[in-house]
Structure formats: structure tokens, C-alpha cells
Amino acid sequence: MRTCCRHARALITAAGMGFNAIMLSPIVDSTDNGYHGYWPKDFTRLNPHFGTAQDLKSLIDACHARDIWVMMEIVTNNIGPATNYSAIVPFNKTEFYHSCTVCPPSCNIENTSNQDEVENCRWNGLPDLNQTDSYVATQLVNSTLYNLNTFGFDGVSIANLNNLPYPFINNLNSKIDPTMTIGRVDSPIANYVSSYQSQVETLWGYPFFFMLRRVFGNQTSLSELHDWTKNKDMFADTRSLGTFFDNADYPRILSLNNGDVSLLKNTLVFMLTYLGIPSVYYGTEQYLDGGGDPYNKEALWLHGYNTSSDMYNFMRRMNLVRLQTQLYKHGFHEHTYKDNFYSYTNNGIATSIVTNVGSHGSNFTARVYLSYDYDTYLCNILAMPTAECYRVDITNAISVPITNGLPVVLMPTTQIKSWML
């Protein structure tokens, strides 16, 4: 079975969970063992593991028929491992690559605080393309345009954005405009990442990513959620940031927290109810828990496409709530943060309580003060169809039992809809 056909099965699974966009890893032909797509070899040829060009086009057409956007990731910084460039298309000459004159003896990036080194030296030992060369820049743009126009992609994710010079980024954006662009600046330093927000339409929120992994993967203090919400203004537009907690470059969060599903559910609730454009790495719904490379890139079809699992239905319910109530349009207001829980509201639409005590932590009661009137009843939509409701008392507070380290998402009974049951 071709990979594109397998992707079609995954598409049905993703659509069933309520996702309305997917992103494919780089589609150009790669060097041997570059199954992940980030070791390009021929920028003019489709990776044969994706099947034929018609297979890929059919997949994208099937997505569009379901009102699902499709994005592609592009690699414009480097090629795959090579010492002889004769087989690299169209960059088959040494002059198309950066020399190591400004680099450490290893020719690799060793000091990420040195921007000249970041842009001119090798990332993970991979030959670094010289985007200031007009031929290189033109061919990279042409490859992107060809794939956009041929297959009908709706957006472009630019890998290693901070390894690219500003003039090349600006040129690429101007040529593919109005196609949406989102860039990867893999750094926990918010000021550094945010400095690239003016170069593309939006960015992957790496500081948010690292924060989520610390809080719900390593179980650091929940005060980090508070600190993030207070410092979010360093980004020009937090609502447009791509939010995520797993990707192909890092061990899955379930490998960090010893497979604790309660912690995973809390991560999902916070991300899906927070500001930004949330993205979930494939296989999360199947409890994939791979560690470092290559175990964080398991083939999904080897694990099946179970659409009746608790996690699949949990993600489906959260996506439905987010989309149907348009939580992302209603802002974010912090209520309470304690050592064992953090509560907030999307301006009265939903009130969420997350914790990182984990499934083996002690049960406790969260006391949350709200802006709802006395005698209002709030129900936990994650527990439905079971009625798990709480009454706002005379002090405008509710007391909510937190059991097995699970999150709670509350809505007033007047806003409960039949599709939530």
C-alpha cells in the first residue's frame, strides 16, 4: 500500500476528531535514510515514498472536499548528508554552499547566540545552502512555487527559519504571497523567537512548546503557566502562534511523563483552550510514546486507527467544544494558580482547571472564584454524559473535586448543547 493511501486512512481519523488542517513533512526526494523528509536530495522530484504525483494530488483533493486545509513543510536551509554534490539536484556545485570560513573547526553551529554562525554554518552537520547566491535563492523559490501550484497546498511551514538570511525570507514570502507562511525558530528564548514574527505570517510557538513539556512532561511548577500568560505580550500576535507540545524533533511527551495519560489530557486541555492555533502531532490519539529519534517517528499504520479509544474521543470532544463555541475568539483570563492546580476562563464561555499532579497524585478539591452569579450551575463537559455539575455559592466560588489528576472544563448548564452529550 502506498504511503498516500495510508495517509487517506489517517485523514479520515483526523477529520473524525474535528481537525480542519493537516501538515505533511517535506515532500521532495531525500537522501537514503531520510524518510522524515528533512534531508533533501532532489528539489525537483517528489519523494517516491509518497506514491505518485497523482496520489498526492488525490489526497489533497480529498482533504479539500472535507474542508480540511493541507500545509507542506519546506527545507531551504540544507541538504541531506553528502560529501559529493554531483547527485544533488539542482545544487550540484560546491559554490552553492556556505564555506566554513566563519565557522568553528567542526563547521557546525556551536554557538546559537552568534547569528552569523547560525546562518552560515552547518545544522547537525548537514551541508548548508547559500541563500545569498541568486541561483540558489531562485531555485528554492521555484521548487516551492511548483509544489504549491501543482498539488494545491494551502500553506507553507518553513523549517529552520532562523538559519536563513532575512532577504531570502522576504523574497520567498513575496513570491508565494498570499499563501499562509509559518516559520520554525527552534529556541526557548521568547525574545529571539518573537523577533522573526515580522518576517512571516506567523510562527510556531517554541517557547510555549518548551513550557508545556516542562510543566506536563517533567511536572515543574504550575507557576510557569502564570508566567507565560503574563509574558505573552512579547509576541506581536499571540493568537496567531502555532501551539504544540510534540513534534518530530523531540521525544513525545508521554515518554517524558512515563506514559501518564492524565498529564497528557491536561496538556491538551490547556493548549486547546489557550490562545493560538493548536497543532497535535500524529499518533497522540493512539498513545504513541516514542523517545528520541527514530522512535518519535513511528509509522502510524503499525499501530492502527482506533477511533473508539478514550484518547480519540477525548480529543474529538475538546476539538468540538473549541470549534463550536469558538473559544479562540473569547480571550483568556486567569482565575487561580496554586501549587496543585491552575484555573482560567475564556471570558465566561468555559472555565478550565488543569493540574500536573498526574494520575498517581493525591486527589484534592480546587476552590475557584468566578464571575458567575450565585446559584449558577456549571457542568464538566469532559465527564458527559455523566452529570458532574457544581453550584456557585454565595461567595461566587465553586469547589471542584480533582480525581486521578484529570482536567476539568466547566460550562454553565444554559450553554450545554446536545452535541456535547
Summarize the structure.
The chain is α/β, with parallel strands linked by helices and 421 residues long.
- This entry's quaternary arrangement is single chain
Shape: elongated
Helix/strand order, N-terminal first: HEEEHEHHEHEHEHHEHHEHEEEEEEEE
Work out the number of β strands: 17
What is the C-alpha radius of gyration, as a whole number of Å? 23 Å
* Average pLDDT number: 93
Strand content: 15-25%
Spatial gap, N to C terminus = 38 Å
How many individual helices?
11
Topology (elements, then pairings):
Blueprint: H1 3-16, E1 21-24, E2 28-30, E3 40-46, H2 53-65, E4 69-74, H3 115-120, H4 134-151, E5 155-158, H5 166-176, E6 180-183, H6 190-194, E7 202-203, H7 206-217, H8 223-231, E8 242-243, H9 253-256, H10 261-273, E9 277-278, H11 310-325, E10 333-337, E11 342-345, E12 351-354, E13 364-369, E14 377-380, E15 389-391, E16 397-402, E17 408-412
Parallel strand pairs: 1-4, 4-5, 5-6, 6-7, 8-9
Antiparallel strand pairs: 2-3, 10-11, 11-12, 12-17, 13-16, 14-15, 14-17
